[in-house]
Specification:
The chain is of the alpha/beta class. The two termini are about 25 Å apart. The protein has eleven helices and 16 strands. Pyridoxal-5'-phosphate (PLP) binds next to α9 and β9. The site of pyridoxal-5'-phosphate (PLP) has 12 residues, from α9 and β9.
């Protein structure tokens, strides 16, 4: 390894997780959610690998991400869903690129219909597919129950003009308590029935993400949207990826820069710091693997870690594994998260973009 620090992203591990999760949620389908640059794993390589493994739905969050995926080779057989827009969003480019559009309000619906009316006379125009979003209690986005009939009616009216296609109804749930999720499911199914009664096509119903989608059959419906579990990061306390049949996808590697004696201790300097996105909160909590054994992290500086190597002093240039699958004795990012009071997802997402991602596998 020449880079001081690198994030190795194992596309075969990703493929394995995708296969395992698909089998778990079947007959529902799996949407791979690649927002936040696939939580630091790299949105395009992840989406292309998902498509190679037969995934037919990618969740992008924003239009820039959706268009990056289309431009990068995610073809029209794979639905790419965007749902969060800045005011004044340009929907014409989304329609041209055949992005599926989440719609949370009548004003968004109007903007999409206007863009479709502009695009309609161009050769190759395909009316965009809509995923109408209902708020079932999370209050993040989506139409409230009061606003729902007006949103559905606006979509159906635009469909009658040939501007859009109603296709899916969806919501996002808290996944914090079983009771709340059950209540959200009931509200959601009522919203689906109301949408159908108003003339909307509801070919796909989706509500659950990693946590509820893994545990609860009743919330899977037609499609489950997963981020965290695809990267092999369990969303459950005290559960290892292996117990869920998953493999962590990212391994963060660095190297030993030097060793210094400090009274009766030996301290190694390892070439990754908070400037690379290593959280300072892992100091005194998590460890790094050197030569197959774990050594406690004493401090996280901007450009390096200080690791206690008393009893077994490593060579300069020796590989250090910060987190990964455990194959070289290292902790997983889920363990790092548990030990330092954050989420494994948050740690991978915050690994700095300047840290090179090295992709391995990927058939
Ligand atoms: C982020 C997100 C997901 C995926 O969440 P995980 O818990 O990482 O699986 C699913 N749906 C929506 C709407 C999201 O924003």
């Amino acid at each position: 390894m020449s880079a001081l620090v690198e994030a190795v992203v194992d596309l075969d591990a990703l493929g394995h997780n995708i296969d395992a999760l698909r089998a778990r949620v079947a007959p529902a389908e799996l949407m791979v959610v690649v927002k936040a640059d696939a939580y630091g794993h790299g949105r395009l390589p992840v989406a292309l690998q998902a498509a190679r493994r037969g995934i037919r739905w990618i969740g992008a969050l924003d239009l820039d991400t959706a268009l990056t995926l289309r431009a990068g080779g995610v073809g029209p057989d794979t639905g790419v869903l965007a749902w969060l827009y800045p005011p004044g969003e340009d929907f014409e480019r989304a329609i041209t690129a055949r992005v599926d559009l989440g719609v949370s309000s009548v004003s968004e619906m109007d903007a999409i219909a206007r863009a479709a009316a502009e695009a309609r006379d161009r050769p190759g125009f395909v009316a965009p597919r809509l995923h109408l979003k209902l708020d079932t209690g999370l209050h993040r986005n989506g139409a409230t129950a009061d606003d729902w009939p007006a949103l559905v009616a606006a979509a159906v009216a635009a469909e009658r003009r040939g501007l859009v296609r109603t296709h899916a109804v969806w919501t996002h749930i808290a996944e914090a308590s079983e009771e709340e999720d059950t209540l959200s499911l009931e509200r959601f199914l009522a919203g689906v029935a109301a949408a159908r009664a108003l003339g909307a096509t509801v070919a796909v119903r989706h509500l659950a993400a990693s946590s509820a989608g893994f545990r609860r059959e009743d919330v899977r419906l037609d499609l489950v949207r997963m981020g965290g579990h695809c990267w092999g990061i369990p969303s459950f306390d005290g559960v290892t990826p292996a117990q869920m049949g998953l493999v962590p996808v990212m391994t963060l590697r660095a190297q030993v820069l030097g060793v210094r004696r400090d009274r009766d201790r030996a301290l190694a300097f390892v070439s990754a710091g908070y400037g690379d996105g290593v959280p300072r909160s892992v100091a005194g909590k998590a460890s790094v693997a050197l030569g197959g054994t774990q050594h406690p992290i004493v401090a996280v500086e901007r450009d390096h870690l200080v690791v206690d190597v008393t009893g077994r002093e490593p060579e300069v240039g020796e590989a250090a594994v910060l987190f990964g699958t455990g194959a070289e004795g290292e902790q997983t990012v889920r363990e790092w998260g548990d030990l330092s009071g954050t989420l494994g997802d948050e740690i991978t997402t915050r690994i700095a973009s300047r840290v090179p991602r090295r992709y391995i596998g990927g058939s």
